[in-house]
Amino acid sequence: MDTLRFITSGSVDNGKSTLIGRLLYDSHSVWIDQLSEIMEKNIKYEKKIDLSLLTDGLRAEREQGITIDVAYKYFSTSKRKFIIADTPGHFQYTRNMVTGASNADLAIVLIDARYGVVEQIQRHSLILGILNIPKIILAINKMDLINYDFRVYKAIISQYQLTARRVGLKIIEKIPISAKNGDNVVDKSSSMKWYTGSSLLSLLENIVIQKYPHLEPSRFPVQYVLHSKNIHGSIRGYAGKIISGIYRVGDEIIVYPSQFHTKIRYIEMNGKKIQEGFAPQNIIMYLEEQIDISRGDLLVKSNEDLPIISKEFDVLLCWMEKRLLKRGDKYLFQIHSLQVPALIKDIIYRIDVNTLKKEKYPKNARLNDLVKVRIKTSNPIPHDPYKKIKENGCSILIDEISYSTVAACMIQS
Questions:
Q1: Residue of 300, 295, 298 lying closest to 381 (CA atoms)
Q2: Which residues, 6+ apart, have CB-to-CB distance to 343 below 8 Å?
Q3: Helices in 80-148 by DSSP H: which ranges?
């Protein structure tokens, strides 16, 4: 049974948490004790279960009436397993939305039928486009509050399609729903007979997500160097996750950044020797020569497309820190298991989320800004553009003192 990772995105109070709660509740994926606790707290006040409480992670957030972290929920049906990321709708929590969307296969863009496409919808859609989310379901929520009006539904779809085209998103399904009442969420609604499509859960169960990382050029970042001994002497194994491609015994390997050449002697997985390993397996690789390889080095097959190796490159980033980002600032740059000192050489432009225009060479970047910057690292970094090989093109910036993550980065060149 495969797993679908998806994110719900939209403006504040569009009903994202309620939608997820409805999916969990109507698909019988809620623990009895959890449901009892919610019923006890809500029924005596509202006479109705507040389904959003099934996803809100922290009591303090519920007291404020907003979701401020990224809440992950897990459920399954007979057809598929699901991992849901519920992200905040407020502008000031755009960084949380980037975190939640980074590993998503699909996004549900939720729009309040009363208000249509508002600014935060455009901001979230821009982020989904930047993160190259492959598929979008457009869900028009709170249809009950506009008397299930088909004309309003169609007008919002037309309005959002303009936004989707501007940011490069592909809408694969459109659906009218009421998360609060359950219309078209798990079961089809009798209130919208003009809608002839499937329920949202049925769409999620049957959407085909094509993920073929083993067909991409090979990339194996070393996470651990293992030392052991046998009758022939000491040997080294290189442990990590294959992020793309296939590796076979006998393949010629180039080690980056040193660019040493060698061959694969043998491969182990779960304590057993195997003839080949492929993405996204975790393996231990043993090589013919005992050459100098460290954590963070990248092992690549010599007969395939090779990564870019440079100390200077451009990244598109979401700034996640209250402190301003400025030219000349120093941070730690981390890509998979490699971490090196880095300098912000230039801020090339900032994206205006409303107009999509680029403000060239701003003096700084503020919290939640989307900016393109030029980074210079202390050592050469083997990398790929984010849109070519995602896992070898996504990275973070880390504060050197607090060690907190201050930016999520997508390498452009």
A1: 298
A2: 328, 329, 330, 375, 376, 377
A3: 94-101, 119-130
Specify the residue for token string 């600014």: 119
pLDDT tens, position by position, 147-186: 999 999 999 999 999 999 988 898 999 999 999 899 999 9
Among the listed residues 365, 366, 367, 337, the one whose alpha carbon sits nearest the alpha carbon of residue 349? 365
- Over residues 226-268, the pLDDT tens digits come to 988 776 667 899 999 999 999 999 999 999 999 999 999 999 9
Between the two ends of the chain, the Cα-to-Cα distance in Å is 36
Q: Which residues contact 162 (CB under 8 A, 6 or more apart)?
A: none
What predicted TM-score, i.e. pTM, was given to this entire model?
Answer: 0.82
Label residues 63-81 b or e (16+ Cβ within 10 Å = b): eeeebbbbbebebebeebe
Structural domains of the chain, ranges and CATH numbers in brackets: 3-211 (3.40.50.300), 214-301 (2.40.30.10), 308-411 (2.40.30.10)
Fill in the amino acid letter for 31.
W
Task: Characterize the bridge pairing of strands 394-398 and 330-335.
Answer: antiparallel
